[in-house]
Structures are given as structure tokens and as C-alpha cells.
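[audit] Reproducing an earlier prediction to check determinism. Same input, same settings, fresh worker. If the C-alpha cells differ from the archived copy the diff job will pick it up downstream; this log only records the rerun itself.
[audit] input (107 residues):
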Amino acid sequence: MADNNLRIVVEKNPSESKLSELNIKCWPKWGCSPGKYQLKFDAEETCYLLKGKVRVYPKGSAGFVEFGAGDLVTIPKGLSCTWDVSVAVDKHYKFESSSPPPSSSRQ
């Protein structure tokens, strides 16, 4: 399946109990207007779209992943991609913080 190769996980219409368990309403919010955006994810991001519609084209892949309002999306660390936003996005997001940031010192 193409979605697995792209490593972006989209959960359509997650239950209210799952959203409450994740405490999504306490996550920061971010939004953008329609357009194309070049993005690189330095940490895994989980986001919940309140509104919007996006096609994500991972760098080096011929395919895309589409998601929109009501979707819970996990984007892997290290992914470089183009977001093609057709409907303005408003989302809650969270970056994975369980792993320590990379160290710049060598041992």
C-alpha cells in the first residue's frame, strides 16, 4: 500500500474518547492559508485538523497522502515534503518529545 511506503499515518474521524485521551484541545494551534509549502519534519508530529484539506507529496515519492478536517495524522521524523493546501488549515499539533534532542558534541 502506498500510504505505508510514505509513512504518514492518517486516522479518519477518531473517536471523541481518543481525542480526549490525547488531550488534543490543550495542544498548540497552527494554521495556514491555501498554497504550497516545503516542509521538513525534525521531529515526529501528530496533528488533528479542525478544518482544511491537504495533499502531502513526500520528497522522492511519486505518490501523495491526502487528509483534511477531522483527521488525526502522524508525520514521521525526518520527512521532507511539499504540503499542497487546497482549503485553509487550522490544526492542533504536538511534536514527539520522548527522545532527547540530538547532541552536537562528539565523543
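[audit] rerun output stored. Observation attached for the diff report: Strands lie at 9-12, 29-32, 35-40, 45-58, 65-68, 71-75, 80-95.
[audit] end
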